[in-house]
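thought: fold this chain, then report.
action: predict
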Amino acid sequence: MNSLRSLSILVGGALMIAVLYGIAFGDKDTNVSFDIEDGEGVRHIVSGDRGEFMLRDDDLTIEASWRGDYELSDDGTDIASVDKRLEITRKIDDTTERAVFEDDGDTVERVFYRDHVKQDEGAATDDAVQEILLAFLRASGVKADERVSILMRNGTAAAVLDEMKLLYGDHARQRYISALTEQADLSPEDIRSLMAIISEMESDHDIRRAIDAVFENEAVPASELPMMIATARKVDSDYDLRRLVEIFADQELDDSTTPLILDLLESIEGDHDFRRASEELLESQSLSSAGAARILTAAAEQIESDHDLRLLLSDSVRFLTDDVTTDAWLKAFSAMESDHDKRVALEETGETRDLSHGTIARLINITREIESDHDHRRALEAFASAAMQAPSLMAAYKASAETIDSDHDRRQALEAIGESADD
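observation:
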């Protein structure tokens, strides 16, 4: 999309169509898929047993509409039965072709038109009907489960991968990839071939869905992760990037893959998505302290929202075990402007056990950055129990308390460690 406005118009239009279909068909089971830009792309609407599909690509347009379900023949190249009606239209340059499939008792009636003229029955017409049906199936991904099953029955995963080369767009490829990974145990070589197909896709949504299907259904060797992460780098959408980072965060991270995933993370621009993706990575038990430090350093530079930054700081407290990670944490803390968020971050950190005295001293000292006396005092009190365990921490606590201008808040901060303002 060229702008948020065009995206909002597109989404709004899709929602409106979904509502209209639900009203028109009296069915709440409505699914709307749009991927259209500059008049080209895919529209796919399904409501109950009715639906519409449209693909536009340069001088090619494929449209279909149906009422009632329909079944494919055993070889997946014809319609074996149709409840009511299926109509497919294909326009190439100045030529228009239309195939109509209708229930005719025990058989399926097939009628074929070229440039609005009904064509005589015969082998040539049968071939044309089959061709336009396959064009629709390959453009829409409709009946992908059945076609993949047929291809697997007549061959191997390679047969499905070959079929994918004939598909018209990312929408269909993503549906075939989902079906293939659900039905087959792919070899590392198959996965590499599949990733080569995904790497040629352009739709952010479909790339993400395809990669997700691979991880959900296949045992992906660690050696293939760099190639999959490189494919994910094609994605521009913050939401899809975030979801991809979340997928990769569930894998075993090591020194070779972690920097690649962090590169992917740092390409996310939105505060919310950056924070959510970072949280998933921070939950990974295989993420090193160096990886956590890099996330926090990037967060300090990229996240503008104090709320999101504070939530991320709260989720990274377990990494405050060395100077490098602590330095990064404190840098991110200083990047916040809100005294409230600074106070809450330190309060939550103060509840953490097993922090070293050196780390606690640094956290106590940084309370001085909080300008609000009330928030300064509340943040300091979170370390009162720890301060009473060591003279050095007690000294740091008192020194910070003495910088509180409000007599009331300074007195309460000192009372929290058993001291009075006159002591």
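thought: worth noting. The CA atoms of residues 414 and 423 lie 9 Å apart.
final: tokens above.
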